[in-house]
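ok trying again, last paste got cut off:
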Amino acid sequence: AAIDLAGRNVLEAVQVSVNPKVIETPNISAVAKNGIEVIVKARVTVRANIERLVGGAGEETIIARVGEGIVTTVGSSSSHDEVLENPDSISRTVLEKGLDSGTAFEILSIDIADIDIGRNIGAKLQTDQAEADKKIAEAKAEERRAMAVAREQEMRAETQAMRARVVESEAEVPLAMAQALKEGKLGVMDYYNMRNVLADTDMRSSISKIVEDDKDKN
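nice, full thing came through this time. structure:
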């Protein structure tokens, strides 16, 4: 019967120490320096290390370390083509890292079972960045447009206020003239001369407006 020792099946461990076991990793996604995703699946051949059976890490640790090694190795490759041309380099590099340290296994070999090309992560990141930059530019443009509209409204309000002050001032002119006549500061002839000047000015303005309208029609 199998003996359980600190959560380990001793019989199974002895069998694995004699007949090595193959651990298959899930698909591991890594990205080369040129931004292309490489999806790798590996087979790790291990042998039980009886001396580290108690307290040594299990298969999950082996899979995690191999996955980390694959990601690091692919990530240091200049391009995905380099990985595809020489997949054994992944095995050699990962194997040299001593990933079985502190585990209940001794790694005998790491073989690449499958390798595929995934997404262009670099291009996607660039596209996402371009889209983000576009949204920022649009937001800034909208902000400038809103500020321009607000400024235009302010200018219109200011113009209306100025017109109101002009109308108010014009309304005070007759009162001031009447007061000047009453106090003798303005003679009757002065008053009529002023009226003639104002009438002449109005006539010139009317003629000028008629001429401008004729030019626009032609």
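cool. The CA atoms of residues 171 and 216 lie 33 Å apart. Confidence is low (pLDDT under 50) at residues 1-6.
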